[in-house]
């Protein structure tokens, strides 16, 4: 934040707050719209960062605009067009993102080569697209203006590109005029394009998560690195590698066709869910919850809900995040100790979030959508949210409807067979039918290779063994669980359980 | 448009144990694939088994060592490829899903272009 020591400091702080707010709310909107001009992620990022920097001074003199996102988009796009017009080499070297081939390009329209004239208005305002579908060189250099960007890590710039697009050697591609690019029409689509590109299943999950935080949430590379506890050069390399694959393998910048949507939406939701679970229980570190990641996941889930209002899985994911996060205030005791669901003060739960989540679960379960899989079962996120909703609706731990929960886990196992789901189901069986039944259900999973090294299995076994009075076995299981988690709050919890068992 | 190489990796022993019936089924599948994607296909071949492979490496001192066997021993070995033309990765992946690879899978690699 800039703090002006003089009389303008309050106003400056106000502008800085407005810019920070616009950064969080509008970054994805502004970047997605700018990528449509640059068709290069790095150049678009540079222009958007520049627009936010300009906003700090411009808004101080002109006042905060009524539509900050529109102002920032216009400024960033204007900057992009300036850069592209000024530097023909830059234009030639950009490995253009592939857009929808059905959208008309300037090559289809005579006389629209260099300068952007009014005749360049696209066929329909909603599809402001259309660069020539060129074959571009793969070994790329970073665009000259893009150095120093968060994504361009040290030593990460590839070898210089030998030349321009193969089918149009030496010829710069036309630069579209700003007025031809509607800012509002199709804007929602632009954000969706960006989401589907960042979360393409051809990218590794960790790269998808990093790109999403960088490009959709506007986090700096340093912030993304901190979020995942890796060094900044490591994260910069990860992001650069992902961007390079997008360009070289031609991962398209577009919303997938309907037939591919369920699979592709799932790839997006997996990213947001991973972001949320990473924040919800940080794998390492002093704090149980990483609020920043949880907030970002919630923002993204809300954005997806806005952009894909009819998708039941999107509704399910938003519901899951809302319902789980609604319990956040009750999860940790005043002494920082982890509180189990059974111990939590349910009065501390966020009722507004629960109401919103429950309504979304109902909607998601009602509307299965064409992508609903085998046997037309609801998707995994609506089912997981439904389980969370049962807990949220229960006045106390003792009143929990475990039959309902086990039934939902049975559906989830059919829809999304996974050892972790089976583990959670076994725990629910134990709560519903007693520790012996729970232990039997858990022991059936002991040979599951994917659960080897998963700390929640021995922790759950330990609790049931303790309830059955098998103290020595319980102690061994707690010690095993303790060896498998590095989260300080979880470790304290397990150590306390061990102490309660008394000396061996 | 761009070109992609679709590399077919399969477990060879499944062919050896499968016999004539498997061979016939695989050939029919490749013929069907070739007809369906004739417009996109730029080339393709099946390879002889890894037991016929010879690896040649420079010894760094001007000489070469020639050894029997593939470059890397893996359970699933490169057994054939198709060269296809596609607008983007999504289109290439859609084609790749149709490539018969009953005993393994395929890898999609964009062809690098130099100007």
Automatic annotation (TrEMBL), chain A:
Span of domain RNA polymerase sigma factor 70 region 4 type: 195-246
* One family name in Pfam for this protein: Sigma70_r2
Q: Which GO terms describe its molecular function?
A: DNA binding; sigma factor activity
Q: Which organism is it from?
A: Frankia nepalensis
Q: Which PANTHER family match?
A: BLL6612 PROTEIN, BLL6612 PROTEIN-RELATED
Per the database record, which ranges form the RNA polymerase sigma-70 region domain? 29-87
Instruction: State the SUPFAM superfamilies in the record.
Output: Sigma2 domain of RNA polymerase sigma factors, Sigma3 and sigma4 domains of RNA polymerase sigma factors
Similarity comment text for this entry:
Belongs to the sigma-70 factor family. ECF subfamily.
For this UniProt record, the keywords arranged alphabetically read as follows: Sigma factor, Transcription, Transcription regulation
Q: Highest taxon of the source?
A: Bacteria
Q: Where is this region: Disordered?
A: 97-177
- What is this protein identified as? RNA polymerase sigma factor
GO biological process, alphabetically ordered:
DNA-templated transcription initiation
Q: Where is the composition biased (Gly residues)?
A: 145-156
Q: Where is the composition biased (Low complexity)?
A: 113-128, 157-167
Regions of compositional bias (Acidic residues) in chain numbering: 100-112
Tell me where in this chain the DUF6596 domain is found.
264-364
Automatic annotation (TrEMBL), chain B:
Which SUPFAM superfamilies does this entry report, sorted A to Z?
Dimeric alpha+beta barrel
Enumerate the Gene3D superfamilies for this protein: Dimeric alpha+beta barrel (3.30.70.1060)
Domain (YCII-related): residue spans on this chain: 3-114
InterPro entries recorded: Dimeric_a/b-barrel, YCII
Pfam families per the record? Answer: YCII
Please state which protein family the record places this protein in: Belongs to the YciI family.
PANTHER family listed in its UniProt record: BLL7171 PROTEIN, BLL7171 PROTEIN-RELATED
Name the chain's protein.
Answer: YCII-related domain-containing protein
């Amino acid at each position: 934040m800039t703090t002006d020591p003089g009389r303008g400091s309050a106003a400056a702080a106000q502008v800085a707050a407005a810019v920070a707010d616009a950064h969080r709310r509008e970054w994805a909107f502004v970047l997605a719209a700018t990528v449509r001009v640059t068709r290069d992620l790095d150049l678009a990022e540079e222009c958007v960062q520049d627009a936010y920097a300009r906003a700090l001074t411009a808004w101080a003199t002109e006042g905060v605009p009524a539509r900050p996102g529109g102002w920032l988009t216009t400024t960033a796009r204007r900057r992009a067009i300036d850069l592209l017009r000024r530097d023909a080499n830059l234009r030639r070297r950009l490995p253009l993102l592939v857009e929808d081939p059905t959208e008309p390009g300037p090559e289809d329209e005579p006389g629209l080569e260099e300068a952007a004239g009014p005749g360049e208005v696209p066929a329909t305002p909603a599809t402001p697209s259309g660069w020539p579908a060129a074959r571009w060189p793969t070994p790329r250099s970073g665009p000259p203006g893009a150095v120093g960007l968060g994504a361009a890590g040290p030593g990460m710039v590839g070898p210089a590109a030998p030349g321009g697009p193969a089918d149009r050697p030496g010829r710069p591609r036309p630069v579209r005029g700003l007025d031809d690019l509607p800012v509002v029409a199709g804007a929602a689509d632009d954000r969706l394009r960006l989401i589907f590109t960042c979360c393409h299943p051809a990218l590794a999950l960790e790269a998808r998560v990093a790109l999403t935080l960088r490009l959709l949430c506007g986090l700096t590379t340093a912030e993304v690195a901190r979020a995942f506890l890796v060094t900044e050069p490591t994260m910069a390399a990860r992001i650069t590698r992902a961007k390079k694959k997008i360009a070289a393998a031609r991962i398209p910048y577009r919303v997938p066709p309907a037939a591919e949507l369920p699979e592709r939406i799932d790839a997006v939701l997996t990213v947001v869910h991973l972001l949320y679970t990473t924040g919800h229980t940080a794998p390492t570190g002093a704090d149980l919850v990483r609020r920043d990641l949880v907030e970002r996941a919630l923002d993204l889930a809300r954005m997806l809900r806005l952009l894909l209002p009819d998708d039941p899985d999107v509704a399910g994911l938003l519901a899951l995040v809302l319902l789980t996060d609604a319990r956040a205030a009750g999860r940790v005791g005043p002494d920082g100790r982890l509180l189990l669901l059974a111990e939590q003060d349910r009065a501390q739960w966020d009722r507004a979030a629960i109401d919103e989540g429950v309504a979304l679960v109902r909607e998601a379960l009602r509307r299965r959508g064409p992508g609903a899989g085998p046997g037309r079962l609801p998707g995994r996120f609506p089912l997981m949210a439904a389980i969370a909703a049962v807990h949220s609706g229960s006045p106390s731990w003792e009143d929990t409807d475990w039959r309902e929960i086990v039934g939902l886990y049975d559906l989830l196992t059919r829809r999304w067979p996974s050892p972790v789901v089976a583990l959670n189901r076994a725990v629910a069986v134990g709560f519903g039918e007693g520790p012996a039944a729970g232990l039997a259900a858990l022991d059936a999973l002991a040979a599951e290779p994917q659960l080897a090294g998963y700390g929640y299995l021995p922790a759950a076994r330990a609790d049931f063994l303790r309830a059955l009075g098998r103290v020595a076995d319980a102690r061994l299981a707690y010690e095993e669980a303790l060896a498998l988690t590095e989260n300080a709050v979880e470790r304290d919890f397990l150590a306390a359980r061990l102490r309660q068992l008394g000396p061996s | 448009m761009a070109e992609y190489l679709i590399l077919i990796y399969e477990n060879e022993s499944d062919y050896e144990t499968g016999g004539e019936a498997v061979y016939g089924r695989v050939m029919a599948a490749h013929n069907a694939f070739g007809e369906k994607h004739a417009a996109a296909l730029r080339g393709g071949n099946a390879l002889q088994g890894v037991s016929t492979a010879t690896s040649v490496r420079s010894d760094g001192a001007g000489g070469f060592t020639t050894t029997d066997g593939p470059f890397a021993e893996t359970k699933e070995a490169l057994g054939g490829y198709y060269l296809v033309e596609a607008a983007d990765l999504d289109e290439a992946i859609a084609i790749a899903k149709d490539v018969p690879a009953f005993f393994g899978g395929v890898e999609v690699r964009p062809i690098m272009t130099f100007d």
